[in-house]
From TrEMBL:
The keyword Zinc appears for this protein: no
Entries under SUPFAM superfamilies matching the protein: UBC-like
Keyword Mitochondrion listed: no
Gene3D superfamilies: Ubiquitin Conjugating Enzyme
Name recorded for this polypeptide: RWD domain-containing protein 3
Localization (cell): Cytoplasm; Nucleus
Pfam families listed in its UniProt record: RWD
Amino acid sequence: FPETHGVTFRIQINVKEPDTDVLLKLLFHLPVNYPSTVPEISVNSAQLTRAQCMDVKEKLLEQAKEHLSEPMVHDLILWLQQHLKDVIKQSATVSNEKTTLSKGRSTEDGIWMLLLHLDHVRAKTKYVKTVEKWASDLGLTGRLMFMGKTILILLQGDRNNIKEYLILQKTSKVDVDSSGKKCKEKMISVLCETKVQAQHKRFQMFEVKEYSTLDQLQKEFETAGLTTLFSEFVPPLLK
């Protein structure tokens, strides 16, 4: 607050709550024409979240507007001591609603599926471990599939996590080049990125599998209800 105009003072109050004492640090800046205008208020507390402090401040300003033209700081502090519990409780329900909303949004995005084709893998053991770790960290299920020289990664999970996986796959040194130096994945193609439909089966875990024939690979896709995905994207890779 610009100290030159009006008066600024800090007040610390301790509000006793059933579970814990809340120490509030309040900063009031009284403008020159106070109390005809409301003070500027800042609220800080180690026991409250940033959002709760903002809510407390909003509520104090609402109260201040009701006391215009009469000295109000003392009243505001009394009001806060009596009502802090309600403000915090309200703040918690609002933030819960917000999280439920954002959760709702992500489920609305639904579960997504990603099919990747890798041109080659030189350091296979390391590569497999890395992909398994990423899938596990991001809560993705699916398959890393080897059939002859064909390497496919099929992933299912939250859309944001799938995007995160792609970033890791493209920006991390996950393999080695012909001279054995660590290198980023340059030869990767995204064959398909789509929402998981009702007819698709959900993979329960992430597994690494080897197939000796195209039939075996095709069965893996068929079992997961992904026959169309297979016929559209896999045979062209083998030509």
